[in-house]
Specification:
This protein is α/β, with parallel strands linked by helices and about 240 residues long. It has helices at about 1-20, 30-40, 70-75, 140-155, 155-160, 185-200; strands spanning about 45-50, 55-60, 85-90, 100, 105-110, 115-120, 125-130, 165-170, 180, 220-225.
Length: about 240
């Protein structure tokens, strides 16, 4: 059944590839037709398009659900050759966005800080701290920041390395936290510190990301009760992201 559904999806996409390359909005019925075929495979999968370049891109995303990564890989592996298109499994690493607007709230990503957390089982998570964030915008900001991290780290790395996330307003001295822009490097540093503990031979040390104003990031990850890295239900019609 899954194999047949995958073939049906690619048939529908191929038949509409030219129309999709001209797509200006996810409100277009063509988008809905292709998305419906993808949802026939699994309704937790979604599409992202980038058509403002010489070669259009289709990204199939599992919205961070690791249990579906293998299925996404299988779908992309079965993709036919379509002139002018390339196909990508899961959101790729593109770097930290300058800003994001989510449900009417604008977040300057350069101003976002994070605090490393660790739950009782040793799983790694982060608390993101956003300046001037109203209490009633925390949930929407959380959803927006999850998508920022998808592209800052890549959807696969994000799911592999960060097990839970929290979002709150910055209430205190920014020097106590680490810029979100340093998260990728912090993850590498943390992994090397873990490997060092079990290594039998010397390894090259990685420099820990500096905290705000170059304050050394030597504070151990704070113990925290894990909160699931959840996402709000995504509407069928998701805005196409322009990159």
């Amino acid at each position: 059944m899954t194999h047949a559904a995958i073939q049906d999806f690619w048939t529908a996409f191929t038949q509409r590839a030219d129309a999709l390359a001209r797509l200006e909005s996810a409100e277009d019925p063509v988008y809905d037709e292709v998305l419906a075929k993808l949802h026939a495979i699994n309704d937790a999968l979604f599409l992202e398009f980038s058509t403002h370049s010489r070669k259009a891109e289709l990204i199939i995303t599992a919205e961070g659900d690791k249990s579906l990564f293998g299925l996404v890989d299988d779908i992309v592996a079965a993709a036919p050759k379509v002139k002018g298109w390339s196909f990508i499994a899961l959101k790729p690493k593109l770097g930290l966005s300058r800003s994001i607007t989510w449900e009417g709230h604008v977040i300057d990503c350069a101003s976002v800080l994070f605090e490393p957390l660790e739950d009782e089982s040793g799983d790694f998570g982060i608390r993101m701290l956003i300046p001037n964030l109203p209490d009633d915008k925390q949930d929407s900001a959380h959803n927006g920041m999850l998508r920022v991290l998808d592209h800052a780290l890549g959807e696969r790395r994000f799911a592999d390395e960060i097990k839970f996330t929290e979002v709150t307003a910055l209430d205190g001295d920014a020097e106590d936290y680490i810029p979100l822009s340093a998260l990728d490097r912090f993850i590498d540093w943390r992994k090397q510190q873990q490997e060092k503990k079990s290594a039998t031979s010397p390894r090259k040390k990685a420099k820990a990301p500096a905290r705000k104003k170059a304050k050394p990031a030597t504070k151990k990850a704070r113990k925290a009760k894990a909160k699931p890295k959840t996402r709000a239900k995504v509407k069928t019609k998701r805005p196409r992201r322009k990159r």
